[in-house]
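Residues determine shape. Next comes a sample protein:
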Amino acid sequence: MPKIKLYVVVTLLFSFLAGVFLSTTQAQSESTQQTIIDENYLTMSYEFEEKAEEGQLLLKFKRRAEDKKVQQRLKIKLIDEKNKPIKYQESAVLKEDGGWLVEKEFSVEQEEQMAIKLAKSIKELHLYVQMDQKSVSEETDGKFDENILKQKTPYVLKLRDEKQTRNSLIKKAGTKEAQTTASSKGLIGPQKEQGTQSSDSANTPINSENRMVAPIYDTFVPTYTQDGTGGQYPTNAWSPTDQSTVMNHQGGYADSKQWDGNQGWDVANDNYTQSYIKYGDPNIPNLSLRKYAQATTQENEFKVKLNVKE
């Protein structure tokens, strides 16, 4: 079978997603899962449920050492917006130690979730995350590397304020269908309709060029490299494993205009952690999007996947 050189230029113009995404969110429960960390070695998320007299935070994590020759343990500390510590409930996996909730044992991998009751007055939390590591070949002399994570500042967990912001976005979006125009080409991210100065804008056809479109988030304009044959491909690209002629945009962070630098990963199995473009806070993005292509066993046939995470 002859090889066909394909450069897949993935430009995420998902104007319709904004309306669908926001209207879907409105129908969801008040307890909505938010991602804090989304890495191969560590994932962490939280859900907040507001009850009549108090709130409850459900914090989940799953970690796995990328090197099987080491063992790790996670340490978590929560304080409120007034720098007051939060009371923890110990479990079979976790214990309280000097204001931290610490795994009792080092291990190659661990998964746990914890429910934490919160006073009704708390609107946000600051979460500190550390990870200690030791070699499995070391003797039990107590030596280990403390806090191997690069993240030194706390993650901010929005509770009630986050809901108010989301409800405000829903109210602004309403049930209108978001639009895009030809001038939107090359912008990555959801778009929203913006009113024009025309007095009869309400009567303007939905596909009229007179309508103005503005991004909900900062636009993320990619750059391209010429391939020497008149074609072009994303300068910041990644290819599925063993598919070097298929090139997709890398993931990254829209606000800081930074690509993640990941040049390839195995798409044989579903993977929901790689190559997202994240909008909003990079640690707790409001929205994460990715669209990528992969070759199939059939010549000239490709599979395209679209993933959206709140």
Residues 8-29, 162-166, 168-187, 191-210 have pLDDT under 50 and may be disordered. The helical segments are 15-26, 160-173.
